[in-house]
Amino acid sequence: MTENRSRNQRVPAKKKLDNLSAVLYGINDLRMEQKPIEDPDDHEVLLEMHCVGICGSDVHYLTHGQIGDFRLSDPMIVGHEASGIVSKVGAKVKHLKVGDRVAIEPGVPCRTCTYCKEGRYNLCRQIFFCATPPDHGNLSRYYRHAADFCHKLPDHVSLEEGALLEPLSVGVHACRRAGVTLGSKVLITGAGPIGLVTLLTARALGASRVVITDILEHKLKTAKEMGADATVLIDRNHSLEEISTHIIELLQGEQPDKTIDCSGIESTIKLGMLVSCCCSAVA
Predict the structure, then answer these.
(1) Which fold has domain 179-275?
(2) Of 27, 36, 209, 220, most Cβ neighbours within 10 A?
(3) CATH homologous superfamily of domain 20-167?
(4) Could you give the angle at the alpha carbon of 248 between the alpha carbons of 246 and 250, nearest 5°?
(5) For the whole model, what pTM was predicted?
(6) Which segments of the chain belong to CATH 3.40.50.720?
């Protein structure tokens, strides 16, 4: 049957795909711009992005323009804590298909250096890492990424939860390096997002007691709600020795056998070394 249309009846236009992206040009200069949608290579996938978290590193690049030796010199798309839905697959990708929901592992190593072969690919000197100059991030509507660093989400894990897996992996890595296990007494310095996921991980690994510190009371309140046995509000008027004594009291008179720093502040690292009987692990 031939469908007749009146002269005034319009055929719906095909939806135009856009790739609006958050591009950082310099300190406090973040712009929303259209970027090309790139086809994936043989071992890549194109993702329709769903959730992208805002990491402290994104904020630091926005407000300072650099982190350590990594300095913003050219415009960079921000974002690395992310999840998305597979839109296209490369010719040699076998484990993913269009429509799969994935969490993105943002650091893609060379796969051939000694570190990579030893399984310590996070130390690869040629690693591509989203939103670390000069590498673009994934706060875009479409983004292509190495397929083997896209992890398929099970049905019971939401895309929002999938975007949280990257920061969670930091807590898991720190607790593994520290050797947290059944009965561990753990001190965590810093109750930001990384400190909180480290707290959750320590609990999951069987820590018997966890104390967490911070300079902000509302963060410690959240930590308490998430399972911390005790919290310590750092008062700058108290010496590290006094704070250390208080922490030992909260641990029922014992030193923590695992200390994990999740702040990167010199004073908290000193506190961790002062109060602990073992080496500190840095998240």
Answers:
(1) Rossmann fold (3.40.50)
(2) 220
(3) Medium-chain alcohol dehydrogenases, catalytic domain (3.90.180.10)
(4) 70
(5) 0.84
(6) 179-275
Cα angle for residues 54, 57, 58 (degrees, 5° grid) = 50
